[in-house]
Amino acid sequence: MALCAEASVGRVEVEAPPHHAQARVLVAGHDQLLRIQVVSAIRGDGHRVHEVESGLEILEHLGPRPPGVDRIRVLILDISQNPWVGVALLKAVFCEDWAMPVIVVSNESRRVLAAVEALGVNTVIRKPFKVEVLREKVAAILDTDRSRRGAGA
Q1: Are 141 and 123 in contact (CB under 8 A)?
Q2: Which of 9, 35, 37, 98 has its Cα between 20 and 30 A from that of 56?
């Protein structure tokens, strides 16, 4: 996809030491404070966390990977500032061969959240929320993913 190759590289990557690295998690949204809190919590659980602000940066992370680079295991997306852009982005993510669990964080209306859930998002967490709730959701998704991969699915 051409957009992925042309996207700017204005992201911040925070990685846990390799011996703690369990999964690659992508945290996306315009709210810098929320991203910092989420990245810190998920990184504290030993995951390799990539932090981005824009939809183009998300597509860059989901596009072709160099050999030896694991796929993103979970996308955490805050759609609060641009809800319908978030919905369109999710449609693109689900239409491509990027199948992955998605957690949406939002303070949007029921209409927006219903549209998000209809796309197949795994979890919707309404703001405000406790970061422990998000950590539990990520852990549950990754446990399910590991079980499926272990069973050959």
Answers
A1: yes
A2: 37
Sole residue written with tokens 């590289």: 9
Q: Could you read off the pLDDT of 30-86 as tens digits, one per residue?
A: 999 999 999 999 999 999 999 999 888 888 888 887 888 888 899 999 998 888 888
The answer to whether residue 120 scores a pLDDT higher than 80 is yes
- Would you tell me which CATH number, out of the four given (3.40.50.2300, 3.30.420.40, 3.90.960.10, 3.40.50.620), belongs to the domain 18-150? 3.40.50.2300
The 3-class SS string of 97-137 reads CCCCCEEEEECCCHHHHHHHHHCCCCEEEECCCCHHHHHHH
Q: Which pTM was predicted? A: 0.79
* CA max distance for the chain: 43
